[in-house]
């Protein structure tokens, strides 16, 4: 640890105490507002860590309401075909603590849910999470421990949803080009073709 590294006490001293509103808004269950937010959300960021504390963050998206609320303290997050790295699932298999950040397009507020997850292969659950007739490959069943709304400051500062803040993707290298620059022996054009084909045929 460097000499200028701050301890938890140092950090608290720098920032002071949270307001009563910020401190007391945390709930141990999914109330009506949290359920309604999740039902609107087509996108969630999943945070996990392995047994040694190495962390990973993964985006997950589907039609709004794809995360299924099973009860006031339980929800299910479907897993779809991907790159088979299974970073998040491998982490949960060894260390169950997870964090979820739900985002709704056009909303500056977000919803945070923290809890403990397990991987389910229950056929009935996976079928209930189907899209286009294709069941989920597995599901993370999360036992909820903390739920709270997160304020809008980050989205206001970033102007994320503002039309004039949108950037032209063509001004940045394609994913295939980036991978080719980072991995020896990869052909950028072929990689772009393969990525596009995967997007068209293997979303579900």
Structural account:
- It is a single chain.
- It is built from 8 helices and 7 strands.
- The chain has 204 residues and is α+β, with helices and mostly antiparallel strands.
- A 7-stranded antiparallel beta sheet has the order 2-1-5-6-7-4-3, with helices on one face.
- The protein is globular, with a radius of gyration of 20 Å.
What is the compact description of this entry?
Helix content is 31%, strand content 27%. It is α+β, with helices and mostly antiparallel strands and 204 residues long.
| Helical stretch tally | 8
CATH topology of the largest domain: Pnp Oxidase, Chain A
Cα gyration radius (Å): 20 Å
Q: Bin the strand percentage.
A: 25-35%
Number of strand elements: 7
- Which architecture name of the largest domain does CATH use? Roll
Given as residue ranges, the uncertain stretches (5+ residues, pLDDT < 50) are none
The run of helices and strands is HHHEEEEHEEHEHHH
Structure classification: alpha+beta
Q: Strand order within the widest sheet? A: 2-1-5-6-7-4-3
């Amino acid at each position: 640890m460097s000499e200028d590294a701050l301890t938890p006490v140092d950090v608290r001293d720098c920032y002071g105490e949270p307001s009563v509103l910020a401190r007391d808004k945390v709930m141990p269950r999914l109330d009506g507002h949290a359920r309604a937010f999740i039902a609107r959300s087509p996108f969630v960021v999943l945070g996990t860590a392995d047994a040694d504390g190495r962390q990973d963050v993964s985006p997950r998206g589907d039609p709004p309401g794809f995360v299924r609320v099973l009860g006031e303290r339980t929800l299910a997050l479907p897993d779809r075909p991907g790159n088979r790295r299974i970073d998040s699932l491998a982490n949960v298999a060894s260390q169950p603590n997870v964090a979820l950040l739900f985002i709704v397009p056009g909303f500056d507020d977000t919803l945070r849910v923290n809890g403990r997850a397990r991987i389910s292969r229950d056929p009935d659950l996976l079928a209930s999470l189907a899209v286009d007739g294709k069941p989920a490959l597995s599901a993370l069943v999360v036992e909820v421990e903390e739920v709270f709304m997160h304020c809008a400051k980050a989205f206001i500062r970033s102007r994320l949803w503002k039309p004039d803040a949108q950037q032209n993707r063509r001004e940045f290298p394609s994913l295939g080009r980036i991978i080719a620059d980072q991995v020896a022996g990869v052909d950028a054009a072929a990689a772009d073709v393969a990525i596009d084909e995967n997007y068209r045929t293997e979303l579900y």
